[in-house]
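Bench notes, afternoon.
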Amino acid sequence: GLTVAFTGPMNLKRFDAEILVIQAGGRVSARVNRGTDVLVQGGRSQHYRQGHKGSKLQQAQQLMRQGHPIQIIDEPEFRRLTRIDGTPSEAG
C-alpha cells in the first residue's frame, strides 16, 4: 500500500521497477509529494554537477523537515526489499 517514486538513473529499467512496486501492492508516483512514502534514489546523472541534488530528492528532504515520513532508499536496498537480488525480504 505504499506510494513509491523514483529519481536518478538506475541499473534496473524504470518500467520494471514500477512493475515490482505494483506487484507488491504499492503505487508509483511520478512526483514527490505528501502522499509519497518511499523515494528510490538511483545513481547521479552525468548532467548534474558535483553535489547537486535533483528536484525529487530536494522535495523529499523538504517534506521530511516538515514532518512527513518519507523513506529515501538506494537501488540496492530497493532490490533487496523486492527480493530481486535473491535474498529474502525482511519487510512486509
